[in-house]
Amino acid sequence: MGSYAEGINGSVYRVSGMKTLKKICQFPRLPFRPDRWMLFNPAIYRKACKLISQGNYDCLVTRSQYHSSHLVGLSLKKLYPDLPWIACFSDPWSNADHQAVVPFFSSWSKQREKRVLDVADRLVFPTDRMQNHFTGHQSSLDRKAMVLPHAFDPELYETVATGKSNDRESFTLRLFGSFYGTRRPDVLFSAIDQLKIEQGQSLTFEIYGPWYEAYESLSHRFPSTSVKHVKHQGQVPHIEALAKMQEADLLVLVDAPGGGKSMYLPSKLVDYIGSGQPILALCREGVVSNVVHKLGGLVAEPNDVNAVTAALKRSIGLRRGRPLSAIGLIEEYRSENVGAKFRAMIDELL
Description:
Blueprint: H1 19-25, H2 41-54, E1 60-63, H3 68-79, E2 85-88, H4 105-119, E3 122-125, H5 128-135, H6 139-142, E4 145-147, H7 154-158, E5 170-176, H8 186-194, E6 202-208, H9 218-221, E7 228-234, H10 238-247, E8 250-254, H11 267-275, E9 279-282, H12 287-294, E10 298-300, H13 305-318, H14 327-331, H15 335-349
Parallel strand pairs: 1-2, 2-3, 3-4, 5-6, 5-8, 6-7, 8-9, 9-10
């Protein structure tokens, strides 16, 4: 992680829940709020209490996703009121644009969210907009809040032997992640459908992530005889994914459409930034579009097929090997820089 982490030793403890709970959590669309993993909180709480009673801990840190981790932090803070607590959030808790309201559970979860925000000693958010979503500009919350983005570790990329092709006639796009809710690949596939490829050239679009129903028609829609190939490659380990990012000509990010400006900073975007490769983001106006524009990448509306097609055409025209610009902005996401700020916050609390 960098020089700021020298001399830090840690351990990872895994908590195993009841087999019945594990089976329950495998069911899709469970109505629990904030999330299904709250079923494991009693076991996690007991393990944490045991560790704290046996060790010499200076600070408690909880991080979401998943938000249920903060409920464990809330219980631990009640038992150990003098133990400083930092609660870190990556996505909205209540009022998320992809989450349905569930009677009782949603209102109970919102009450717990408010309690966590009030009790935690420090609050960390990845963007200003995310902070505003949680705190509502309440001065009592804003005073203890801090914006720290997700980070990439350059050493993970430096250990990768890149096999990037110098073939000027082929163009490889890669997307890493999953589709769910209103985040769908349909517009992207339609844009590739209508994209005209110059004679003698070819385009390959590879998707790395969980299976999605729209992938069933890919072999028929983009046959092997076509100059445009779209393939679902399954899931790969994180280090392998970083290597494949470095080998791509263009990295594609698809964000969910919606109203208003987006507050999200996907960790996948930060992984893309670490690779140094060109980025195309299909997203509405907001955090992602601002970051990608500053990096010299391309942005298109996620529901506009023609705009996505035009962005793909421009990406191919700019060709591969075009590094990200705004080096100063990239530095902000390096793990040693983000980590140093987080460490300074901990030191301030102690």
